[in-house]
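explain this:

___
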Amino acid sequence: MHYQDALAEAIREAAAHLLAEDVGPGDITAQLIPEAQWATARVITREPAVLCGMAWVEEIYRRLDPSITLRWNAADGDRLEAGQCFLEIEGPARRLLTGERAALNLLQTLSATATRTRHYVDLLDGTGVRLLDTRKTLPGLRLAQKYAVTCGGGHNHRIGLFDAFLIKENHIAACGSIAAAVKEARSIARDLPVEVEVESFDELDQALAAGADIVMLDNFSLDDMREAVKRTAGRATLEASGNVDETTLRQIAETGVDCISSGALTKDVKAIDLSMRITALEKR
């Protein structure tokens, strides 16, 4: 399935799942409000953030009631200031309230990933090094968080186990050697990139000799990364991994590696603090 098609399907599935787990057989508290009551809602952020999740929110409210209208004052990838109203919604009051938590849960999580990514990308400014995500995503939100990374200015590594080879220690042990593993990968799918994770200069030399497209330097020291860059001399893309945070990111980039991968972009982000304020209008 094409990535855009897969993302669209993931959006539909996520919206359906979130509404099913939250609403269940029905929103009993919303029944306190007259069916004909109309309302508007303003969604604000209480802290600076990078927005992400528009399509998910639109799908949630489309499923609840197609008469609901959403007016966005920002787009995915835009920076938001604390106190900024970035979304205005109008429609039946019951439906606005029923969709509130599902919508905010998605927005606060995806915006958190986009915000963390933008922060890291800003730290890399001027180095030319690409920031990559990993498969350490929240369960059920793989494509959503991968999309959020791109909204923050980062790049996607593998989407899953199917779109690139990443040969690690256990694969090498099972195949007998790095050379054998790379050769087997080429025989299985010549059109897919082959990456080898290495933990020493000897393994780096083997990966380069085997013709790996990408070599992941796993937990190399800064000095060893610089040496790896010299040894590689452009024969493969070098990816740094391990011990990556905002205090080490710039130093790693300045060793000369091509890209840096970080699980922190997706696996342990802190949700953005968002709020929805509803105002009742005349009944319709």
About this structure: The chain has nine helices and twelve strands.
